Amino acid sequence: QVQLVESGGGSVQAGGSLRLSCVASGYYRNHCMGWFRQAPGKEREGVAAIYTGGGVTYYADFVKGRFTIFQDNTKNTLYLQMNSLKPEDTAMYYCAANSGYCYTLSSPGGGYWGQGTQVTVSS
Fold first, then answer.
1. Per-residue model confidence (pLDDT) at position 44
2. H helical segments located in 30-119
3. Cβ–Cβ under 8 Å, residues 11 and 120
4. Radius of gyration over every alpha carbon of the chain, rounded to an integer in angstroms
5. Which of 24, 59, 88, 115 is the most buried (most CB within 10 A)?
6. Looking at 1-123, which runs of residues are DSSP E strands?
7. How many Å apart are CA 11 and CA 51, to the nearest integer?
8. Is the Cβ–Cβ distance between 100 and 31 less than 8 Å?
9. Above 90 in pLDDT, residue 54?
């Protein structure tokens, strides 16, 4: 079983940056891990995903060029570097992990979830 704990959310102005972290306890290797977000009144959507065993990545079109997903295997930690933030990026961000390979942006969503960390971007 994998337990996920996110941190790093906060409030920033448009154009600012934040780095989210997700520490995974339990099995970490060869998992598909990723970030999802959900804004009030909207459905949850995939943001980025990475395969911990090989580094293949996926990004939603609306974050390409601004967000970067990466990992530190020595710390069992997943990161999401968010630059050039926009007010529309405001949402609760969740870390997710699923055993096996990443085939799509949504692949991490079939397994374990963290409790979420709030990101608020003001204009």
1. 97
2. none
3. yes
4. 13
5. 24
6. 2-7, 10-13, 18-26, 31-38, 45-51, 57-59, 67-72, 77-82, 91-99, 112-113, 117-122
7. 29
8. yes
9. no
Measured between alpha carbons, how far is 83 from 7 in angstroms, rounded to an integer? 16
Asked if 81 and 17 count as a contact pair (C-beta separation under 8 A), the reply is yes
Please report, in angstroms and rounded to a whole number, the separation of the first and last CA atoms in the chain.
40
- Locate 62 and state its tokens: 């609306």
Residues 22-31, mean pLDDT to the nearest whole number = 86
Q: CB-based contacts of 111: which residues, under 8 Å, 6+ apart?
A: 2, 31, 96, 97, 98, 99
For residue 55, pLDDT beyond 80: no
What's the average model confidence in pLDDT over 76-91?
Answer: 97
Q: Which phi and psi (to 5°) does residue 105 adopt?
A: -60, -30
- The structure tokens 């943001």 sit at 47
How do strand 2-7 and strand 18-26 relate by DSSP bridges?
A: antiparallel
Nearest to 59 by CA among 77, 81, 84, 43: 81
* pLDDT band of 116, cuts 50, 70, 90: very high
